[in-house]
Design brief:
It contains five helices and no strands. It is mainly alpha-helical. The longest helix has 24 residues, at 95-118. Mean pLDDT is 82; it is low at 102-107 and 109-117.
Length: 121
């Protein structure tokens, strides 16, 4: 079971990294607009399903806060997008190091276990 979960995590993480690398310049804009859309859907679906409950009120409050946040940070998004693009470019250029580091780390752990458990000096 642990191997299945680990493999699934590696696949999802790799897909998320590939998606971020493909959309690095527009990812912050897309995330902000998606957040506004989800808040709007939360409020409207809440009104449709149970208009007298707390859900529509929280959806409308989340929508107002998200739109307010959008007005505050919209002019700062290009700087954040440039930082994200720079970081992802560094990751893209050094993708081979991820596998090498894991192999080196595993080798070091094996050596430590070997010396500790077998008392080899």
């Amino acid at each position: 079971m642990a191997y299945t979960c680990g493999a699934f995590a590696v696949i999802v993480s790799g897909c998320a990294l590939a998606f971020m690398m493909a959309m690095s310049r527009r990812l912050v804009y897309v995330a902000l607009v998606l957040s506004i859309g989800v808040s709007f859907a939360w409020g409207t679906i809440g009104i449709g399903i149970s208009p007298k409950s707390f859900v529509p009120i929280t959806g409308i409050i989340a929508l107002m806060l998200t739109v307010g946040y959008m007005f505050v940070v919209w002019d700062r998004i290009p700087f954040a997008s440039a930082n994200l693009t720079t970081a992802l470019t560094g990751v893209r250029e050094n993708l081979g190091l991820i596998g090498d580091w894991g192999e080196l780390e595993g080798g070091r752990e094996c050596a430590v276990v070997h010396f500790l458990l077998l008392d080899v000096s």
